[in-house]
Amino acid sequence: MGHYPITHGLKPMSEIQESTETIDGFHLLIEALKLNGIDSIFGLPGIPITDLTRMAQAEGLRVISFRHEQHAGNAAAAAGFLTQKPGICLTVSAPGFLNGLTALANATTNCFPMILISGSSEREIVDLQQGDYEEMDQLAIAKPLCKAAYRVLNAEDIGVGVARAIRSAVSGRPGGVYLDLPAKLFAQSMPLQAGRASLIKVVDPAPKQIPGGDAVQRAIDLLKGAKKPLILLGKGAAYAQADEAIRTLVEKSGIPYLPMSMAKGILPDNHAQSAAAARSFVLPEADVVLLIGARLNWLLSHGKGKTWGGANHKAWGAQKYIQVDISPIEADSNVAIDAPVIGDIGSCVSALLDAMGNNWAKPPAEWTQAISERTGKNIAKMADTLAKNPTPMNFHSALAVVKDVMRQHQDTILVNEGANALDFTRSIVDMYKPRKRLDVGTWGIMGIGMGFSVAAAVVTGEQVLAVEGDSAFGFSGMEVETVCRYNLPVCIVVMNNNGVYKGTDVNPTGGADVAPTVFVKGARYDMMMQAFGGVGVHATTPAELRAGIDEAFRSRKPTLINAVIDETAGTESGRITSLNPQAAKKK
Ligand code: FYN
Ligand code: ADP
Ligand code: MG
Questions:
Q1: What is the pLDDT of residues 324-353, one digit of tens each?
Q2: Which residue segments constitute the domains of the chain, with CATH numbers given?
Q3: How far is the CA of 544 from the centre of ligand 1 (A)?
Q4: What's CA 330's distance to the chain center, in Å?
């Protein structure tokens, strides 16, 4: 047991007599986490967990302190997605717990494994509503927002509580778990041997789930008969870390594939079978769609054919669906699934490959050629746009720089949020390796930027490039101090177009207040980074932007580049303008 500063009368373990040696709740929790391979905690100190953060650090855990618990929670969720181990977020009670809930709910929605551990008030006081310091029935509030929720009242149950939280977070469909630890638990102590014996090292926390042979054959028979097959890769396919098997399935079958945003890079985006640049063509035209770790939710028009582009989009035809997913109840959630293949993606894809045999007929040339024609056209059109160099910069000329940077630095992790900053980056910046793109995910949530960036840098050690809308950056901008404090290799590019979506709205009354969507014109976000010792760059041209990114990658110093973007560029809500009631009325 390591030493830790005596802050409330508890003796360091080394000073306790052999015979009377005991272990307290603090150390039981720390040992339970370490026993299960947890090496980092993302959180924010305060009553009743400040000492816990100190002791965890003293016992060798990496404790990353944030300025707001939502971003610590987002960091834990991103760590879970990247490592398949639950990310740990530690908060104080009541308000700190509430601040963590957005991240817990977002993790659950996105199937990212994380555990929110919060200190809490004593049950006897909460249940009688006697008005404790930060009194709140946290367990009851958390339950509807996460996959599982547990509370531990006695030190000897800490081992079970941690084990249950870990297994719940990563087994089956991954998600967020809440673990409620009332303050009195930490100071409880028990004999050291009995305490250690109460801890559980979780065996096989995410067991393989093998698909049924009949289900696999049903899927193969459907795929075999397809004239216009399409494979759709979702973030579940990225999370599963079955990269080689998925690549083999795509290449052996010859079937065109479409990656959802966080599945980009499972195969390189410039792959000959990528249909990403013909999205609006392939989705309505395909006759059999193989979903791998992707849900037919709003991002895929619920499988019902409403697409996001202009009037030329066709309603989807009578596709047949094969759905590979670990969740048996995901099938039929939106439309009938003709061939559900239930299991973990690694096992399912291997079973499909075995069932394909060795003389699989590639899809008809008219299908693959039609796709190549469209991708060729869209890529050429995009290349023309990207070659332009307008003043001021627009999203395209700035992202042409980012596109080239990512081509040259393919291990870099790209974090991306915003509206136009998100949608243009998704279709302009190619990804070449799996799990290198972290973005707003299933909810389209703003505020993931700095939490995801810190986690990506901490758990991978790789350079991080965060491409942020100026509005999106505002949700977590104070965490640039956190980035500087830990001297993380995070380069933030704020696409500064003076406002939400654009910077051109005006107050129709002519009053002194600016329009609700407009920010301070010409804001200098780069100076925020300088305030904390990081590098701030003000870029008004693609050349200045490139130089700033290159220097950040060379120095690996925390850097924020304020990229001045034409405030008239972009559209409201990017590619999903149609979700705005006003826009929908115009339809
Ligand atoms: C794609 N495209 C390309 C390329 N990749 N053209 C050229 N080169 C490349 N590499 C084309 C693609 O074929 C589409 O054109 C278009 O670019 C857009 O592609 P995208 O972005 O993949 O497709 P689309 O239609 O936007 O996808 C719908 C969507 C997406 C809902 C999945 O918009 C999305 O994920 N939106 C997230 C929105 C969100 O969460 N925002 C945060 C909150 S916004 P066509 O085929 O011609 O259509 C707050 O206001
Ligand atoms: P996307 O938005 O990229 O399409 P979604 O988040 O909608 O991805 O869907 C992810 C799906 O992947 C979820 O239905 C989830 O159950 C599934 N999933 C996550 N991990 C695995 C896994 N290891 N094996 C199988 N399915 C998985
Ligand atoms: Mg903006």
A1: 999 999 999 999 999 999 999 999 999 999
A2: 13-197 (3.40.50.970), 213-372 (3.40.50.1220), 388-586 (3.40.50.970)
A3: 27
A4: 20
